[in-house]
Amino acid sequence: MTGRCPKAVVAVANQLLQQASPARTTLLEPLPKAEQGEIHFVQKRTQVEEFTYVLRSIAKRLNEGVAPNDIIVLVPRKKLGRDFVEYANQRRDAVGLRDQQKFAFILKPDFNEKGEGTDSSS
Predict the structure, then answer these.
(1) What is the dihedral of CA 29, 33, 36, 37, to 10 degrees?
(2) DSSP 3-state assignment of 118?
(3) Which residues, at least 6 apart from 50, have a Cβ–Cβ distance to it below 8 Å?
(4) How far is CA 17 from CA 64, 108, 114, in A?
């Protein structure tokens, strides 16, 4: 079972795990009462355009009343996640998030074939 991830996030995570390891037989499972959730894939011409789009999307959802802990931004590389957090924290005021908490990069463990967490601090 995967913590509190929505079913849609778990489904995409499983697709990525299978692409990385086609012989993989153990996949993640959402908690029985997990929400469906929603996923948005974004690709822009430049990294700054992509970061701007994501930051504005987050601000819109927060201003609509979505709780910060109900939003997750998944990135394929740690450096990209750290770069987004730096970008977002520098531009919070510009998108109306002045009084909101700061963005944070949270590193989750990698999962091996058995679904067990391993250290991914590199």
Answers:
(1) -90
(2) strand
(3) 42, 43, 44
(4) 33, 15, 12
Q: Could you report the per-residue pLDDT of 92-115, keeping only the tens digit for each?
A: 999 988 776 788 888 765 655 554
**pTM higher than 0.85:** no
How far apart are the C-alpha atoms of 64 and 53, rounded to whole Å? 17
DSSP 92: T
C-beta separation of 6 from 35 below 8 A:
yes
DSSP letter at 45 equals S
CB 7 within 8 A of CB 37: yes
Crossing angle (nearest 10°) for helices 47-63 and 78-90: 60
Give per-residue pLDDT as tens, 53-93. 999 999 999 999 988 888 888 887 889 999 999 999 999 99
Which residue is it, tokens 């692409």?
A: 19
C-alpha torsion 111→6→18→106, nearest 10:
-40
31 near 60, Cβ under 8 Å? no
